[in-house]
Amino acid sequence: MSAEDKALNRSTRLFVDPFIDIHLSMTGNKDVIDGTDAQISAIKMLLGNVDFEAEYNSNPEASQKGYLSVLDEIGRLLRTRMDVFPKEQHNIEVVRNFLNGMLLSRIYEQESYQGIFDQDRVDDEEQPNLAFTP
After folding, report:
1. How far is CA 10 from CA 53, 73, 77, 123, in A?
2. If we measure between CA atoms, which residue out of 57, 1, 53, 58 comes closest to residue 27?
3. Which residues make Cβ contacts (< 8 Å) with residue 128, sequence separation at least 6?
């Protein structure tokens, strides 16, 4: 890979647990991929492809537990990266308080927030090239 090609690529390695090494790779223009919009698109793409319901027959709570696990991680990030949530709060309570604050303030009605809510899935051509390999 040439130096120019390396400048255009970004790769992130995620460690899910001690036994599974998941490599998430986004390729494309470095300026676009390094941006928050591309990272959010990648997260939405991963979430959109999660199929918690597939395990429903063997575990009726699989779907609920899967979504709660994702929300728990969002709560952990909110609590650790924003100094407004008490450390002793459960992550799921942090999510609830964050959403309550956004809803009560009606911040979602501001014009600058309109483009992020209630969106249909973006066409594949507009998404960053995302490869997910366990």
Report:
1. 32, 23, 22, 21
2. 1
3. 26, 27, 28, 32, 33, 38, 41, 42
* Euclidean distance between CA atoms 83 and 40, whole angstroms: 22
Six token digits for residue 70: 């994702």
Tens of pLDDT along 28-82?
677 666 777 777 877 887 887 777 777 767 778 888 888 899 999 999 999 999 9
- CA dist., res. 59 & res. 96, Å (int): 26
Q: Is 92 within 8 Å of 116 (Cβ atoms)?
A: no
- What is each CA distance from 22 to 14, 15, 18, 25, 131, in whole angstroms? 5, 6, 11, 10, 11
What predicted TM-score, i.e. pTM, was given to this entire model?
0.69
